[in-house]
Amino acid sequence: MTWMVYGANGYTGQLIAELAVRRGETPVLAGRAAEKVVPLAERLGLPYRVFGLDERLAGHLDGVDTVAHCAGPFSATAAPMVRACLDAKVNYLDITGEIAVFEQIAQRSAEAERAGVVLLPGAGFDVVPTDCLAAMLAADLPGATHLELAFAGMASASAGTLRTTVESLGLGGRARINGEIRPVPPGWRVRSVDFPGKRREVISIPWGDVSTAYRSTGIPNIVVYAALGVPAPLFKAQRYVLPVFRNSLVRKGLTALANRVAGPNESERAAASSEVWGQVRDAQGRTVSRTLTAPEGYELTADAVVRAVQRIRTGEVASGTHTPSSAFGASFVRSLTGVRVHEAQVR
Q1: 284 partner at 20 to 30 Å CA-CA among 34, 39, 194, 309?
Q2: Measured between alpha carbons, how far is 170 from 53 in angstroms, rounded to an integer?
């Protein structure tokens, strides 16, 4: 048996395939674009399969025990691949950051348990570092009622990331309030955060932890922020043009522009780094905060996916739908190359 990188022809899929080979792995590379998959597989000396997700997938997963799904937008691609993995009794993980996808896959946990497979969405920068930090904080302050997370320092985005961003335009923000995911205006909250490098202004965004951190920690109120490098008033101004972003022609044009983006090159990734901050608060007003420093987001994603695949394939993870910390424990992020978790600050 072996494992598969589906969407290997994409930016992140290629990084995962290359890292896997460097670590002695021989995954099957797959995707729907033969003109991209085949040359990559030949260069890396790996087997390949060419198929689209609109096909009948069962036979395409023969001899595979785990799929690392890297072909987004996952709102369109996750469901058919999850269904195929459940039918074929194949483990599934992906690199989504989309709240709706996390919620949909969570609803299939019972099916995954019956099939004896692991479903692990969000095995990359979305949401490994934030999810693991959230789980650490929940252990630091049992009974916490509020969780805030923030990140900073990502390099430029790939075409796939930008396509997913375009798809989410017009949807507004999301936050977890009293246990429920609720819509909030873009830039609903703005605050300053003490990252390891420096103090930064961060703006609330609809990040995947609004879904996953609740399952990892049980904390009912969750807001996620990002240091976006744009003035908060400008970001908040989205709320006045949301109908424009919902227009199909506008979205088509933005997607075409996104497809022209190459993503950060090797030197840009090596020069960049990322930082994550988190804080929990309980009903008595006590707080605990933690930070971590990590490599650039795409570098971390490739590392996390390869390590996650290796651990899932050993059989150590119970079947069902997981978050990174529920699958491997909060310490999983510490095992990633170049990650440093800083001491908790209690107040």
Answers
A1: 194
A2: 26
